[in-house]
Amino acid sequence: MSRFRIGLTGGIGSGKTTVANLFAKQGITLVDADIIARQVVEPGSPGLSAIVTRHGQEMLLPDASLDRRKLRGLVFNHPDEREWLNALLHPLIRQEMLKQLQQATSPYVILVVPLLFENGLDSLVNQTVLVDIPSALQITRTSQRDDVDEAQVQSIINSQMSREDKLARADYVIDNQGDLVQLEHQVMQLHKQFLEQAKLSPDND
């Protein structure tokens, strides 16, 4: 490890992106798993080539980019195809994450991963932060934001690690039930703490 690393996670609709952006405003580098997951299947990438080789040109949109909706529908209905896709993409995503973590120049770096604990990626970081809200609030916020029905949001929540387990595993918890001012206050407190920890870390040069 070259930089002191923080893993940031939170369930759907928890406000994880808002929290990540508040850290970024303090000059902290973000390594975002969702962004990397899109990068590894961009036109011309080995990831996209492998998908087209397996499933044909119909997996592409007219602009030669991946038809995500079609792929999602395919893997949703065929567990063996989901396994194949995960086996293809997870190593590519992990490799790019590690590269970006190594290249970070801020005092500490934040790895933003929705399924940090589920995918064992907490092994890549020194400390973990969970953005937490009750399930009922997750459902309300997500269904309003994405214009999807509440049952669909509930099924996504059910497919992930339970709130209790995540709370038990996280080193720090940010409670995002309040307003932005309260959220910013919590982020600034942690930012100061992480700056101190980074100074003391033998990993940081």
Question: Which features characterize this protein?
Answer:
EC 2.7.1.24; 55% helix; 205 residues; Depp_CoAkinase; ATP-binding; cytoplasm; Rossmann fold; 2 domains; 9 helices; alpha/beta; five-stranded parallel sheet; 5 strands; globular
Describe the structure.
- The chain has two domains: 1-28 and 106-205, Rossmann fold (3-Layer(aba) Sandwich); 36-94, no CATH class.
- It has nine helices and five strands; from the N terminus they run βαβααααββαααβα.
- The protein has helices spanning 16-25, 33-39, 46-55, 68-77, 79-103, 135-146, 150-159, 163-169, 180-200, and strands spanning 4-10, 29-32, 108-112, 127-132, 172-175.
- It has a five-stranded parallel sheet with strand order 2-3-1-4-5, sandwiched between helices.
- The chain starts with a strand and ends in a 5-residue tail after the last helix.
